[in-house]
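Allow me, if you will, to draw on your knowledge of protein folds for a short while. I have a record of one protein: its chain in single-letter code and its fold written as discrete structure tokens. The full record is reproduced below for your convenience:
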Amino acid sequence: MNTVSIVITLFILTMAGLIGVVFFYMKKDNFYLKADEWLKAGDYQKALSLCLKKIDSRPQDYLIRYYIGEAYEGLKKYGEALHYYEKAALFSFAPGEENIKTQLYLRIAELNRKQLNYEVALSYYALVLDRQRRNTKALLASGEIFLEAKNYQKAKNYFERLIDINPDNINARNKLGWIYFQIHLFADAAKQLEMVLLDERVKIDKVFKSSVSFMLSDVCMEIKDFQKVIDTLSTLLTESDYFEEAVVKIVNALILQSKTEEALEMINKNIQKVSKEKRCELLYLSGKAYFSIHKYYPAIKSWEEAFKINPSYRDLSHINNEYLHVIRNPKMEYVFSHEDEKTQLLINSLAAPSSIAKLAKKPSYWEFKFEDSVYVLYKVPSQIPLLELREMHDLALGEFFAPPCMTVYSLYGVAREEGSDFDYKKVFVVSGDEFIKIVNEKLKV
């Protein structure tokens, strides 16, 4: 064979080999492309059938095992999916495939998490983080698993690492704020949540914004930053879905800030705009507000209305029983009224106005002298404490120049202290049903 023939022959053989190789990879590429196409289209059974036909001819091909795993996952056969994902991870050992192995570990972890196999999931997330310490998916998922388990300290570590890597992750920052709240790091919680609310993305997401705002308000309540509660929730008053809850929390903050008149004004302005459930809450707070400024009768009436709506709300059942005498006897309004005119009308009913020699008006009681005797009307719906009883007695002896004995009208009587040197025999107490009877008979209104 001459040289030319040899060259031609070698050329033909080389080209034949190259064509074979190209044909093989084209065939291989077409197979993968078809499987990938069906998986993306959600036709998992077709993709699975195709891959299972080819698997025996590719004993160490990680990609086909990954596709099989993905097909099984799509068919919700998670056990089989995990088996093939793990095989794919085992065979992805070639140089340059380390990142692929990491992604497979993530897939295995996520699928275990989906099946509530949290310990296994965490072990695979740990493998990911061993390879890539800054893998945000593994950090977030691990943190969320510990958060769901209420293991706040471990969750805190993952979310802090995540925020260091990606400060713009508002979802992670929000959860870190919640974690700080749960472990009583209130200042840190407030800082994180305030940063979340400043993000422009949050301002256009009403649901997320409201959730963060309410959480921040709860944090601020703990650190007694009541003004921050009011400022934070005021932004939700124009949002119909969150208006009611915001009103209730703002009113509570105003009361705790001793801005009672503002609280009552807000209640009166919104009481008819809220649902029955929230009306009960506002009436309850109205009672608290009135009671704190010694307007006892309006307080009791507010609690009565709240009780009618929901008897089981907080301590309304106890309050209702405590003030049942007041509720059932309308004339008790004159006893516990904050209006001097009504109290004076009751005093005039108990004694002839022209015969009242002296009258002393104290915040919690009125004391007067009538026919050389001293009488006291106690205006607080509770027992008279010993300290006030001594004060009444001293007033009778000192300013009124009266005998040491006096008559005290107190619906709830006197709180007697064992071992006290006070002579209770000097005080004649009219209380309970007897007190109610006298008021009902003498007060003509």
